[in-house]
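General statements about sequence and structure are easier to judge against a single worked case. For one protein, we set the task of working out the structure tokens from the amino acid sequence alone. The sequence in question and its structure tokens are set out directly beneath this paragraph.
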Amino acid sequence: MTEKKIKGALTVAAGLILANAASVSPALATPPLCTTSIFSPNTVPALQNNNDGPAIEVGTKFQSTFSGDVIAARFYMGASNNGACTATLWTAGGTPLGSALLPAFVGPGWNEVAFSSPIPINANQTYVISVYSPDGWYEATHNVFDTAVVNPPLRGLAAGEDGPNGVYSYGGGFPTSSYLNSSYLVDVVLESECPYDLSWFTIDCGGGTSTNGLFFLSGTSGQPDAGRMTGPPYFSLVGGYWGAAGAAPTCPADFNDDGLVDDEDFVLFANMYNILLCDAPEMPPDCPGDLNGDQEVNDEDFVIFANAYNELLCP
């Protein structure tokens, strides 16, 4: 097959397949969104119905490992707190980003209010969610922020990560004072991409980790029949184990490790062919489309792929 014919066949075939790529390749689907809060709905303060006299604003410093939208605020209200409380989201420097009046509520329990429109936040930046209690009532648990409170992708910061946490201000306004790293049970509802979760820390002889519930896998050793380890977000699992990092695949043109070299693999190959260079940032890890090892996904690789495609079934 000549170079011209190879390129022509690839262009036509890729056009036909990519026209239906949304149904062929799950990787092109829109990722789902999840809503997350720092504290569990079952979290209850140790000290309830506290009142020091003046009005008070109490808050929580937090970060998210994903960018997303804060769509609501949550506040645990004791039986004595039936005032008109107002929730505010702030930047770390004290600029208000949005406020909402919590609805009438008979406690004790979690009260929640949606912001009038979602408030976007950036990943790995500190924000403060606070509630103003005009009658001075608040709930607390001491020493909560001696360590971080983590529910991925949200992280209630440990005291000292970015100043104190468990913050308050008598009279209202941006809270900056702290006492015994206390939690005043002020929280957000974040809408963002969904984190992956692995409940163990090593996988089949080690090498893989789960950091605060976020998915990270650097390579493992496994059984000979295992699928190829290609790196995030191209992990695949066959026979119950990941293959040893760098192990030679038995069916290299089967990019999704389903035992077939079919249209789904062609979509993946076409995308890599259009990138060409293995060291390009957008090329999938380990450059799986480079079937002859010359650090490019080119016409020679297409000839190899086409032969495997015609065979269909992996050996």
Notes: The chain has four helices and 16 strands. Residues 1-29, 198-248 have pLDDT under 50 and may be disordered. The longest helix spans residues 3-18.
